[in-house]
Design a protein that fits this description.
It is built from 15 helices and 40 strands. It is an alpha+beta fold. The strands form seven sheets. Strands 6, 7, 8, 9, 11, 12, 14, 15, 19 and 20 form a ten-stranded antiparallel sheet that branches. Strands 29-28-27-26-23-22-21-31-30 form a nine-stranded parallel sheet. Strands 32, 33, 34, 36, 37, 39 and 40 form a seven-stranded antiparallel sheet that branches. The chain is globular and about 85 Å long. Bound molecules: (2R,3S,4R,5S)-2-(hydroxymethyl)piperidine-3,4,5-triol (DGJ). (2R,3S,4R,5S)-2-(hydroxymethyl)piperidine-3,4,5-triol binds next to loops.
Amino acid sequence: MSRSITYDEKRGILRLDTRNTTYAIGITDGLYLGHLFYGPHLPEEDFSVRSAFQRPLSALENKKEMCIFMDSFNFEYPGWGVGDSREGAIRVRDSKGITRTNLLYQGHRISSAKTLIPGLPSTFGGEGDVETLEVDLQDPDTGLFVTLFYSVFAECDVIARRVEIRNTGKEKLVIERALSMSMDMPGRDREGRSFQLMTFYGIWAREFTKDIRPLGFGKTGVSSIVGKTNNRNQPFLGLLSEGATQYSGEVYGMNFLYSGNFASTVEKIFSGDLRVSMGIHPEGFSWTLEPGEVFYTPEAVMTYSDEGISGMTHHFHDMFRKHLIRGKYKDSKRPILINNWEATYFDFDTKKLLDIAKTAHDCGIEMLVMDDGWFGRRNDPDSSLGDWFVNEEKLPGGLKYLSDELEKMGMKFGIWFEPEMVSPDSDLYRAHPDWAITVPGREAALSRNQLVLDVSRADVRDYIIESITKVLSSAKIAYVKWDMNRHLSDLFSAELPPERQGELMHRYVLGVYDLQERLLKAFPDLLLENCSSGGARFDPGMLYYSPQIWTSDDTDAYERIRIQEGAATLYPLSCLGAHVSICPNHVTGRVVPFETRGHVALAGTFGYELDITVLSDEEKELIKKQVKLFHRFNDLIRNGDYYRMHSYQDNRLFDCYGVASKDKSEMLLTMLHVMNQPCCPSRWIHIHGLAPDKLYRITEVKDEPEDSNHASLDGSEAAKASAQEILAHGSTLSNMGINLPCRTGDFMSVLYHIVEVKDAGESVEG
Ligand code: DGJ
């Protein structure tokens, strides 16, 4: 097997090759480590350090103009205070207060493995999946020793980057900035088109809104400084050729396996070139490194595709599914759940929950999830967070009785926690006021009437784990929804000395990871779903602990089309928490047909969040049909490749996406006629993602008895298409397209099953 990482000693070039990409690093005279190239796969030995670093000056030859060299050289990991005026990746202060940070190449190692990062989420892979390059850099004037890690996942076209920072000196160092990656690159693609910036912004109930904008000169980017990744910005950065589409143009994507403060920055300099960086937000951050200590940065993942946005999407989906998500549910179907939040909010008891569960079970739903309000004296959001003992007034007999009854019914049981929080009105806060993150003597800002526990402290984490473990051991609990409903503010930890207060935000995130890791160790079969006021902590770091994350509190299917499009651009459908809820929708007041709500939730984990006991018989019949659809298509949806044909977010009229099996033998196509348009009987859809030379049968998915056909290859045929059988090759379906009939009314959706026809007249499905 050819190696992904090679070293050309003569030229001083380190090459990282994936299936379709090449990343190259050069070691120059003066031992500076420079970035040569990242892009499509290049033939071997086609470039030298000399030609790639065609800059006005070389470091050694022109020492009297060192500043100009430093300010224009393509650094692989730029330091601080040595003449480079661009965004630095690392800044370390020594005991004299000096922050000059100058890193020179020392050596490197290549291994056919990847180590996990202590205390942090980490991509993983065995031999054959991944190779790792470690490059050592040293500041000759201090004890600072830095190792850059590049793990190459060749099959996924992804490179994971991280950094270890060591104090090999005799005096302490203070890290003031420690990004996980930096890359200098041209500002234009190979056709001379400027790169544009793609990010995803939002707010509560409006997460994952796509934003594509031209890059002006100077610094721009996205960040969070509130202690979690936040719903305002995804840590992701995309750089797209101007005019790139789903299927054309060059696309660079970077994402960050971290759930706290981040800065994802692009700097466009006078030449039009770019410096892209990603890491822990330096604002307010500092970390004291005693002699002999190591600091581990979180990991960033990057990919390149010259096949447009969908190329990047496929790389990330495969990467996260294979090399990030872990545990029992990594590759398996999740139970269909019904969550009582939108059904009851805080107003429930055992009887109500069992009524919901009974009706749900009759409809084929497999698990009841009891949301907020089961503990302490919590009947509204104002009290009891931290008091993780059952409210027996609501739940007589406790969780044991409830879970036993559910088990008798054949239903699994799941439960909600918000472990990182404490209500001022709680026994926990009264006993340990110093466990909350507040500044002594100053009034702390409440949010949802709650405070954040200082999970940087081991004693606080021990309390949390002990109380959750007690609850989970008291009954048969298969699932935990881990919620987190506020920002961090009023930063102060009673445990940290003054000079280490800048460590709190990162220590907090490490504390969260420690808690989730310990929980999963204690309950390895648990299905964990992370959540933060909806999707306010939806990041790749969280996916290491939970295979699914609640995408948004906005369960309106119409809104979800856009939110899930954004989320699915970066994350596999298997991890998008998606439920069918009641109409008028509680967030928007909108009414969307029940069928459409089901179709939209199918493109996620799929579940329900409504009072099923008050639904009509007709609606319950619809649930049974949706459950059947889930069982029929979930393997395909979880494991397949996601293709976006049209975006309602862009065209404001309709949405269309498909999930194709890896072998391209089938696709489930979802067509959402969002806004009805007069005199528009049908729409042409070019279907991407099928094999050009395979013959397919296209069938509208009807619940029963038999699927019938509604698609036509010819616009004039649309009206009578239902009677016809549609057969076409993949090439025809992508080049000519298919004419799909519109539906009368708004928010109408249709599923089409496209199945390879192996022998004349026979489809794979049989
Ligand atoms: C916010 C979550 O996003 C909701 O789903 C629900 O669990 C509430 N918190 C409960 O307080």
